[in-house]
Design brief:
globular; 0% helix; binds iron/sulfur cluster; two-stranded antiparallel sheet; two-stranded antiparallel ribbon
Length: 92
């Protein structure tokens, strides 16, 4: 994840570019979009990552792509059973 230093010397993490359902980083810690039920992988001649919750706003351009490694947003969904809520860790 990109990081930079603000005017006061603090490390800040600018939000990743793309069309996310919520604010990346507001979801459960240590999880990423690629762990989410709403994560979509569209494969044509190349592979594009999208969030299913924003599907009505998808275009053919990169502006609506998301990054698989972006931190999860507040709409993160665990219906795939990847998250162990008792430990907050990924199940293997
Ligand atoms: S965490 Fe899930 S709902 Fe949120 S932007 Fe990523 S894929 Fe979409």
């Amino acid at each position: 994840m990109r990081k930079s230093i603000d005017l006061w010397g603090q490390t800040v993490y600018p939000p990743p570019k793309g069309l996310y359902a919520g604010q990346p980083g507001k979801g459960p810690a240590e999880y990423q979009c690629r762990d989410c039920h709403h994560f979509r992988r569209l494969t044509y001649s190349k592979t594009y990552f999208k969030c299913a919750l924003t599907q009505p706003r998808w275009t053919g351009g990169a502006a609506t792509d998301i990054q698989a490694r972006a931190p999860a947003c507040q709409h993160f969904s665990d219906t795939m059973g990847k998250v162990d809520p008792t430990r907050g860790l990924k199940c293997s």
